[in-house]
Amino acid sequence: MQMLEFYFKNKLAALGYPGQELKIGYSLGYCQGDGMAFYGGLNTDDLKCIAERLYAPEAVQGNAYERVRLLRYRKLVLEMLDFVDEAGNSSVTIIDNSAHYHHFNTMTLSWEFDACDALDQMDEKDDGDRERAKHLQSLWEQLMTDLEEDIVTVSRRLEREGYKLIESGPYEQTEVWRYETARYAVVFSEAPPEDVPVYDMDEDADMSMMEDLINGKLRQMSLLAKVLDIDTEEELGRACLCGVTMAAPMKDTRYDGYRRELVSEAIDEAREALGIALARAA
């Protein structure tokens, strides 16, 4: 579903991950093993963005001392990442460890970095190298531990939000209005939204709309009008509109005028089809 991948990639980017470069895998069918996951490499710039978020003082609901402590720790981590970037001997990759599934447990964080080797290669040896290497390695390994926890947290969060996006529209075609004459029935239905290309607006507007879908402020759907033979239920005409968003909860039974427009189109198509059939019979 194109909309889900668009949402996942942009949400990952907002959290500091290279969303557009990562491989996204997901299956959201309410089955065992379903979920979402993301795979690919992270460079030091990505790690800095993620560290800025993980160690943001605003994330701590403690006292002022705790916030100051975290602010200082974040500064140390960012300085460590500057060193890692300069050393150029690190790698961080989120690996797909499953051949069939995608969820929070199919991601393995693989990394390489040795502070002692980095100092040796940079010819920065002095009496404090051993302690410095130990300090840098400790900061790096704690960041990797926190990153492992974060990719699980993010995966679970995006899985929940993905389900909410899916649930923001009807699961199956549902009749919401019907009008009958002696010979014909006109039926108007909501249908599951089709996988149409992501909309015509900019990314920020698209993401804002998807947040409203997730939060229950909007619904998405396809709308379908059909004209049926009252006796045989044969379809004589139809009109459909995909990718419609409406305010939630639904109060407008006219669907912003779409019901009248689509019913009119379906009736016109039915009249044309019946005219052709009568002409052939003549």
Unreliable parts: none
Strand tally: 8
3D shape: elongated
Helicity range of the residues? 40-55%
Number of helical segments with 4 or more residues = 7
Strand order of the largest sheet: 1-2-3-4
Structural domains: how many = 2
Summarize the main sheet.
Answer: 4 strands, antiparallel
Question: How would you spell out the order of helices and strands?
Answer: HEEHHEEHHEEHEEH
- Given helix and strand content, the structural type is alpha+beta
Q: Roughly how many Å apart are the termini?
A: 48 Å
Specify Rg, calculated over alpha carbons. Answer: 28 Å
- On the 0-100 scale, what is the average pLDDT? 90
Estimated share of beta-strand residues = 15-25%
Tell me what you see in this structure:
- The chain is of the alpha+beta class and 282 residues long.
- The protein has 2 domains: 2-167, no CATH class; 174-281, no CATH class.
- Helices cover 46% and strands 23% of the residues.
- It is built from 7 helices and 8 strands.
- The protein has helices at residues 2-14, 44-54, 64-87, 115-121, 129-167, 203-214, 258-281; strands at residues 23-27, 35-42, 91-96, 107-112, 174-180, 184-191, 218-229, 235-247.
- The strands form 2 sheets. Strands 1-2-3-4 form a 4-stranded antiparallel beta sheet, with helices on one face.
- Strand 1 and strand 2 form a beta hairpin.
- Helix 1 runs antiparallel to helix 5, helix 2 packs antiparallel against helix 3 and helix 3 packs across helix 5 (129-167).
- The model has no long low-confidence stretch (mean pLDDT 90).
